[in-house]
Amino acid sequence: MPPGMRIAIWWSGKRFDMFGLSEEQIAQLGLTVGVGGFILYMFFIIFQLARESKAGKFGTFMLFIVLGFGMLGFIAKNVLVWLLNI
To answer: pTM score, two decimals?
Structure first.
């Protein structure tokens, strides 16, 4: 708040918009894109781990299943929300 400005003028009760998006839309976009990017990065880390440890095809498959299982819940939730249009 600029010095000398009254609170009633500074906070006029208007919705905060940035780039034409509301706060809720920005939060949803950040969650979806941010966590989605993080999941892709974690898949890259799992692939690097399998490659450096020379795990073979079955070992690589198991690494992706075991370490990637937690990410599956987030992806499944977003797919269900999209399909059910909640």
So the answer is: 0.59
